[in-house]
Write a structure and sequence with these properties.
Chain lengths: 523, 451
């Protein structure tokens, strides 16, 4: 086990890090542990921190009956106050920039700062989506280059770029499938979704108007091929539009039967949707198109490193096989015979007889800011570097799996290597200690917890995805903390039940929040 | 490779630790013929930071950016001056590189921001509550339509011809598959919005009336009359705001009877970005909270009784409810919500009112200058910072020709409505606090030249 880092400890601190009791401070702050009121508690409405002239002209006459009686009751603060407010708040967040963030299926990797720099070039950030297209050829070319990379990396024929996030990409893929089914004059109201799927999969299928049927998992954590083929055999699959498979799946395992799954679905007249949330495990090493996939969204904010930003924005382009490419929604980018990229919108359709877009996913052209960042990431890695990304991500996960499987229950460890994430459960932790306690204990250790209680196919899941941007030394520190927590759990250490202790807030009352929702400041 | 910390020695040692002789042994479950031995053909090799920056800078340099040209585009995406502190603060790694705040003890920064954001949006819209953001205005609009159908248990929605055509297309794309019926009124180049036509077709099968405020032509519909007509038959009024700055000058939709107010928040803090990422705003009456889509942040207490914030009412959401969720949305637009919120914290209500008034004054100056060009007329009686002018010929050609002269002279309606020849001569012109007298003069000169 690694020795604790004591370099910065004051002499009076005890070995468990607790300081000696001291009187409370008058301010409520404690050194660099800074409390911060709500912005509405810092100032009353009426001021402003932006230099703007007083209104100089009377409104046009037609507007008079629409005028607002009073401005919104919101305070406006000076720049120094605002900078301080948000800087102080920022310090109450954990982030990748502070340490490992091993959230399974979330791919919290380092966000390169070059990507931030180039996304802010005025030629990308300060252009309007409805500018004459002749004034933005470089932007259209950048989108086309991103599309080229995505199609080559996945072995697919087309790509829809406008979806705004992963779940929006799922929706795009299912709507393309639905359009293709309708174009064949068929009615296929069912989509099959494995029980291990992320919650967005069944929600998306329902949102797109499909009926969701579950496919069971086998004991080794994969899609039950026999159950799937039985559902589709002998004409029984005539009501099935497609399947939604996550590969690698949410147990961190590659669906090794993928070619057979695709063949069975195709034979029944359906389409294969692949949830690409876990593409980081195989980028540059496996092309989903080679496995029979017809549509797959790619979370640019996972595999291609665009920042999560505390919950978005994401970007979820969808690659499409040649069976679905014609149904890609507007707008899309297409290269002409001379290789010049064009942005295709509603007014261009009459000159593209092969295209049958099912509509639009959103206003404008998609998440340009994310496209630029992702393209810079791809160019930085190159084809060789992206394959190394997958290799290192898988190696790091297996390193964690094999370094913890003697102290934590790893349900699929005996079946072989994992992919980019390692799955454990709370089965062997001892009386009353749960996954939640380990997660909160990990917070006290200075790490972000893993994904907990997902996937649902095992009890008390802990899903750890280190990603390729963790060093071996960083993994060793994490492993050391996990082993310590497992030992404390088995020894019945009651302090795990009250963890975390060293955070700006302790465990919060979620029941109270839901029972009496207070969603806005009432003042 | 500068982003990969493992050294060759690390890799060899770690492979030994996991009991593998070669990395490919860890890919043993991949069908052998699908595992690529070499880098994928057709892709370049890795490149230095300098080389990548050069490549991207060259692409960016081919585009005419708004800040370097007389610029008059709007139509759902607006250019305003963004205070320098906004972009500085959102690049703090604790905001930029955090995940969705599912672990509240170590995410109070993001959670408090979301709580403040929800309050700002609710007060801007005049609604009881607001959520923690959606992808953008167009998707928020469809989510509002779907939510109204859940509440009223009716499947027919009446949509104004003044709703942005991309928003209409987004909703139609979804409704085609869900079975919802959307009655969309035609868009016409007339000086008043289509409120009377909407009222005439509302009936007791109507789930909701959807109207944009100000509408896509810059006109200002009479929300109170629409609300009364909708409520009289048990329908809801959904108001769509694509330019939140306008609400510094005109009354908040929630104060005029709107039940659900959605919008595009990009104009405050986010920037143009060629169309994304943007920021969906979503507010509504408190009694509808359990039918709302998207994440909600609520106030609560921690184990020591101190005020704390946490994501709440997740029993509406996909990760709990799966196929019974109110929406499939997961990732939203957190960092854009932060940008919006910082900009709003600087402006305050008073600053927003002044900003809107200044925008209106610049739009009036632009309209007055254009109106004296022979053959050009201004359509609107009422507008805030965007209005429609009618040219003597197809506005698409005029805009392209102005673009070739380095003037970004508005959005031609023909690009938004290619199938509606009756709108072809319409040109949307947006002005803002960024619009200078020189910009207006350049627009007038360019338009006169190309007509």
């Amino acid at each position: 086990m690694n020795a604790p880092n004591t370099a910065g400890w004051r002499p009076e601190m005890t070995s468990n890090g607790a300081a000696t009791p001291l009187p409370a401070t008058a301010s409520g702050d404690r050194g660099l542990a800074l409390e911060e009121p709500l912005i509405f508690e810092l100032a009353a409405p009426g001021g402003t921190g932006v230099d703007l002239p007083e209104a100089s002209a009377a409104p046009v006459a037609g507007l008079s009956r629409h005028l607002r009686k009073t401005p919104p009751a919101l305070p406006g603060l000076s720049e120094p106050e605002v900078v301080r407010h948000y800087t102080r708040l920022s310090r109450q967040n954990y982030a990748i920039d502070l340490g490992p963030f091993p959230l399974g299926s979330c791919t919290m990797k380092h966000n390169p700062r070059l990507n931030e720099r180039v996304a802010r070039l005025p030629g990308f950030a300060d252009i309007h989506p409805m500018q004459p297209r002749a004034t933005v050829p470089g932007a259209i070319e950048a989108i086309a280059q991103l599309a080229d990379w995505l199609m080559v990396l996945t072995g697919m024929a087309g790509v829809a770029l406008s979806p705004k996030a992963g779940a929006h990409g799922e929706l795009c893929g299912l709507l393309a499938i639905r359009a293709a089914v309708e174009a064949r004059g068929e009615d296929r109201p069912v989509v099959l979704v494995p029980t291990s799927a992320h919650g967005t999969n069944p929600a998306t299928a329902a949102f797109a108007g499909f009926r969701v049927e579950a496919i069971p998992a086998t004991d080794d954590g994969r899609v039950d091929l026999a159950a799937l083929t039985a559902r589709l055999a002998d004409g029984a699959g005539g009501d099935v539009a497609g399947v939604m498979i996550t590969n690698p799946n949410t147990c961190g395992l590659f669906e090794r039967d993928m070619p057979a799954i695709s063949a069975a679905v195709h034979a029944a007249g359906g389409y294969v949707y692949c949830d690409g949330a876990n593409f980081n495990a195989i980028v540059g090493r496996v092309r989903p198109g080679d496995l029979g996939v017809d549509a797959m969204h790619i979370n640019l904010h996972k595999t291609f490193s665009t920042p999560h930003g505390g919950g978005g924005p994401g970007s979820g382009p969808v690659v499409l096989s040649d069976r679905l490419a014609a149904y890609a929604p507007l707008p899309f980018v297409r290269r002409d015979d001379d290789g010049v990229a064009h942005l295709v919108e509603e007014e261009d359709l009459s000159s593209l007889p092969g295209a049958a877009p099912f509509g639009r996913m959103a206003a404008f052209h998609g998440q340009m800011g994310m496209f630029v960042r992702a393209l810079a990431y791809m160019l930085s890695h190159g084809g060789d570097g992206l394959a190394q990304v997958a290799n290192d991500a898988v190696l790091n996960a297996n390193y964690v799996l094999r370094s913890l499987q003697d102290v934590l229950h790893a349900p699929f460890a005996d079946a072989g290597p994992c992919m980019h994430e390692a799955l454990f459960t709370d089965d062997e932790l001892g009386e009353g200690v749960t996954t939640l306690d380990i997660a909160k204990g990990l917070i006290d250790e200075g790490f972000h917890p893993m994904t907990v209680y997902f996937p649902l196919v095992v009890h008390g899941a802990m899903l750890i995805e280190p990603t390729e941007t963790e060093s071996r030394a960083g993994l060793d520190r994490f492993i050391s903390s996990m082993r310590s927590l497992a030992a404390r759990a088995k020894a019945g250490d009651p302090s795990l039940k009250t963890a975390p202790h060293y955070t700006p807030r302790r465990r919060v009352d979620e029941t109270l929040a839901a029972r009496k929702p207070r969603l806005v400041w009432q003042g | 490779m500068r982003y990969l910390p493992l050294s060759p020695a690390d890799r060899a040692g770690m492979l030994a630790r996991v009991g593998a002789g070669h990395i490919d042994e860890l890919f043993a479950d991949v069908p052998a013929d699908a595992l690529l031995a070499e880098p994928i053909p057709g892709l370049p090799a890795h490149a230095s930071e300098m080389a990548v920056e050069r490549h991207m800078t060259r692409l960016a340099a081919q585009n005419l950016s708004a800040g370097t040209a007389p610029f008059f585009l709007g139509a759902g995406a607006y250019r305003h001056h963004i205070p320098a502190s906004v972009d500085h603060l959102i690049q703090r790694g604790e905001f930029l590189t955090a995940y969705t705040p599912y672990q509240p003890e170590i995410a109070q920064g993001t959670l408090q921001v979301l709580f403040e954001f929800q309050t700002q949006v609710a007060r801007l819209f005049g609604t009881d509550i607001a959520n923690a953001s959606m992808y953008d205005g167009s998707t928020a609009c469809w989510e509002a339509i779907a939510m109204a159908a859940r509440i009223t248990r009716r499947g027919r929605t009446v949509i104004s011809g003044g709703l942005h055509p991309h928003y209409v297309a987004t909703a139609q794309g979804m409704a085609r598959f869900t079975g919802d019926v959307l009655d969309v009124l035609p868009t016409r180049l007339v000086e008043t919005p289509d409120c009377a036509d909407l009222i005439a077709i509302i009936d007791n099968k109507t789930s909701a009336v959807v109207v944009q405020y100000p509408d896509v032509l810059g006109r200002v519909p009479d929300l109170a009359a629409l609300a009364d007509a909708a409520h009289a038959v048990g329908a809801l009024l959904i108001v769509v705001v694509t330019e939140p700055v306008a609400l510094g000058l005109i009354e908040a939709p929630g104060h005029l009877g709107a039940d659900i107010v959605v919008g595009e928040g990009q104009a405050l803090g986010v920037g143009l970005n060629f169309g994304g990422p943007y920021l969906g705003l979503f507010g509504c009456r408190e009694k509808f909270v359990r039918q709302m889509p998207g994440r909600l942040c609520g106030e609560t207490v921690d184990a020591d009784g101190r005020r704390a914030f946490v994501l709440t009412l997740s029993t509406r959401e996909q990760h709990i409810r799966r196929e019974k969720a109110t929406s499939n949305i997961c990732t939203n637009a957190g960092l854009c919500a932060l940008s919006f919120s910082i900009h709003m914290s600087l402006l305050g209500g008073e600053g927003l009112a002044r900003l809107a008034a200044e925008n209106h004054a610049r739009a009036q100056a632009t309209a007055a200058a254009l109106a004296v060009i022979p053959g050009v007329s201004v359509l609107n009686q009422a507008y805030v910072n965007e209005f429609t002018v009618i040219l003597p010929g197809d506005a698409r050609a005029a805009v392209r020709a102005m673009g070739a002269r380095g003037v970004l002279g508005g959005v031609p309606l023909g690009r938004l409505y290619p199938d509606n020849s009756g709108l072809a001569n319409g040109l949307l012109i947006a002005a803002s606090e960024c619009t200078t007298d020189d910009d207006i003069a350049a627009l007038v000169d360019a338009l006169q030249e190309v007509l």
